């Protein structure tokens, strides 16, 4: 099954979409990667969903990616004796580690790691930033704050600490158990929340190894301060605009989004734009014009993928949301300005053979009307580098490894195909011709560009390109 677009779509599964019929319809509507949100559901729920996806993959004959999203630490205030209180601007309010239910003057905050990182003047945000507190003075167990933005505060609301780097791992005990289980199922990507610094991604890499690719969810100001290093330590990144919009001034989020896209593109790492993309479609069968423009902006900026969250997981119109997302992408990619926008952000190639070949591949595809660019790849590296250049011709990522093909389902422009390994140029050319024709990417007489690494079978060695014409092969 060939998609008629380059950018990919991630769809989150949940109560509205965890049955086989709906998942199949979502795939047919355009979902390339399914997200399993481990903040919700049991292991048995995710195992069932995973099995359905793999069954559909076999039925449709196209590799499908599965992204597991770890919950991460959840910082919350404790309970209130009356369930809720009203905080008034200018008044003092105390947070402490006493579990006694709170009142109008104080509340429990049972997170010693927050107190360990506090500084005078730091902001504490409650309930997605609806309440803002400024730290006046503190000890290792108490913080006296001033209410800067007031309102209703109630039991167990989330707390954000945008000014602080907390001395905690982004992986909770629950996350570690979930990770072990997800890897045993065979997920393709692991997304981690609460990333603050490059060491967080190194910690995740140590646990995942080569069992999956890892993705940093960029949702904290400290992560943006270390953006380039975090991108380098990751296989992909996600612009988690929900928490970014809480912890940073909202007007800066579009600027940060573009900065993340540029950094990831330069490193050749896939980048996903997520959160509230078609939010109104939770309750409406059509998106707003503003939402359509938001999705279009991410595509014009060169995002590898855009993500649907509650729209497909809990909304009333999951199929319509996936269909609308796909239509927006197709329309943008038809626009002649789209190519100019993509080329304007062309990354600087590194001084490696792989970058030289991939850069040449893009140039060739702009000079010759190629039917496709064909990458032989063991690990996916060749396809990643080809996609980084955003060639005009579609990229066929051909690999003997099904796991690699599934991982490539998230990468811009890559149509992943599982094919037996080749061991020589004599095998490579006819196999590339055969796959291109079978997958519907070209007709007799058209030209394809083939990239590969010599010797065959060694990962990360892209060092050759060959042009060949599609022709009848001897039987």
Please explain how this structure is put together.
The protein folds into three domains: 8-72 and 170-337, Phosphoenolpyruvate-binding domains (TIM Barrel, Alpha-Beta Barrel); 84-160, PK beta-barrel domain-like (M1 Pyruvate Kinase, Domain 3), CATH 2.40.33; 353-469, Pyruvate Kinase, Chain: A, domain 1 (3-Layer(aba) Sandwich), CATH 3.40.1380.20. It has helices spanning 20-29, 43-60, 112-117, 173-185, 198-208, 221-225, 227-233, 241-247, 253-267, 289-300, 310-313, 318-334, 336-344, 353-367, 381-388, 402-408, 425-438, and strands at 8-13, 33-37, 65-69, 84-87, 92-96, 106-108, 123-126, 131-138, 142-149, 151-154, 159-160, 189-192, 213-218, 236-240, 271-274, 305-308, 370-376, 395-399, 414-418, 447-453, 462-469. The protein is built from 17 helices and 21 strands. The longest helix is centred in the N-terminal third of the chain and has 18 residues, at 43-60. It starts with 7 loop residues before the first strand and ends in a 6-residue tail after the last strand. Strands 1-2-3-12-13-14-15-16 form an eight-stranded parallel β-barrel, surrounded by eight helices. Strands 6-5-9-8-7-11 form a six-stranded mixed sheet, with no helix packed on it. By secondary structure, it is an alpha/beta fold. The chain is elongated, with a radius of gyration of 24 Å.
Task: Write the SSE topology.
Layout: E1 8-13, H1 20-29, E2 33-37, H2 43-60, E3 65-69, E4 84-87, E5 92-96, E6 106-108, H3 112-117, E7 123-126, E8 131-138, E9 142-149, E10 151-154, E11 159-160, H4 173-185, E12 189-192, H5 198-208, E13 213-218, H6 221-225, H7 227-233, E14 236-240, H8 241-247, H9 253-267, E15 271-274, H10 289-300, E16 305-308, H11 310-313, H12 318-334, H13 336-344, H14 353-367, E17 370-376, H15 381-388, E18 395-399, H16 402-408, E19 414-418, H17 425-438, E20 447-453, E21 462-469
Parallel strand pairs: 1-2, 1-16, 2-3, 3-12, 5-6, 12-13, 13-14, 14-15, 15-16, 17-18, 17-20, 18-19
Antiparallel strand pairs: 4-10, 5-9, 7-8, 7-11, 8-9, 20-21
Helix pairs in contact: 1-12, 2-4, 5-7, 7-9, 10-12, 14-15
């Amino acid at each position: 099954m060939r998609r008629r677009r380059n950018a990919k779509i991630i769809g989150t599964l949940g109560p509205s979409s965890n049955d086989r019929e709906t998942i199949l319809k979502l795939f047919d509507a355009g979902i390339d990667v399914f997200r399993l949100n481990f903040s919700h559901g049991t292991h048995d729920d995710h195992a069932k969903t995973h099995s359905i996806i793999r069954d559909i993959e076999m039925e449709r004959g196209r590799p499908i990616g599965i992204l597991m999203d770890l919950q991460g630490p959840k910082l919350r205030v404790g309970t209130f004796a009356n369930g809720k209180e009203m905080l008034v601007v200018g008044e003092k309010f105390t947070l402490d580690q006493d579990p006694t239910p709170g009142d109008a003057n104080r509340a429990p905050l049972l997170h010693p790691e927050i107190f360990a990182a506090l500084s005078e003047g730091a902001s504490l945000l409650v309930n997605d930033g609806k309440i803002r507190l400024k730290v006046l003075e503190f000890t290792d167990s108490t913080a006296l704050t001033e209410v800067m933005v007031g309102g209703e505060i109630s039991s167990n609301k989330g707390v954000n600490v945008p000014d602080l780097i907390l001395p905690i791992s982004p992986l909770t005990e629950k996350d570690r158990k979930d990770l072990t289980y997800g890897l045993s199922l065979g997920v393709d990507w692991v997304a981690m929340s609460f990333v603050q610094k490059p060491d967080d991604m190194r910690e995740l890499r140590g646990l995942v190894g080569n069992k999956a690719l890892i993705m940093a969810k960029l949702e904290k100001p400290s992560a943006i301060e270390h953006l380039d290093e975090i991108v380098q330590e990751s296989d992909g990144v996600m612009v988690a605009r929900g928490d970014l919009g809480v912890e940073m001034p909202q007007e800066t989020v579009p600027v940060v989004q573009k900065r993340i896209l540029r950094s990831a593109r330069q490193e050749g790492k896939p980048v996903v734009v997520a959160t509230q993309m078609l939010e109104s479609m939770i309750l409406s069968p059509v998106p707003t014009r503003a939402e359509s423009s938001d999705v279009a902006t991410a595509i014009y900026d060169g995002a590898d993928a855009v993500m649907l969250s509650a729209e497909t997981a809990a909304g009333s119109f999951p199929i319509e949301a996936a269909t609308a997302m796909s239509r927006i992408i197709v329309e943008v990619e038809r626009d002649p300005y789209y190519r100019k926008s993509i080329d304007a952000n062309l990354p600087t190639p590194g001084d490696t053979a792989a970058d030289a070949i991939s850069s040449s591949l893009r140039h060739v595809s702009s000079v010759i009307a190629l039917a496709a660019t064909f990458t032989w790849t063991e690990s996916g590296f060749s396809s990643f580098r080809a996609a980084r250049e955003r060639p005009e011709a579609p990229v066929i990522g051909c690999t003997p490894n099904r796991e690699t093909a599934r991982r490539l389902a998230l990468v811009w422009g890559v149509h992943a195909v599982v094919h037996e390994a080749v061991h020589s140029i004599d095998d490579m050319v006819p196999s590339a011709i055969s796959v291109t024709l079978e997958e519907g990417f070209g007709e007799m007489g058209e030209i394809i560009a083939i990239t590969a690494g010599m010797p065959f079978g060694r990962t990360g060695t892209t060092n050759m390109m060959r042009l060949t014409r599609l022709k009848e092969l001897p039987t």
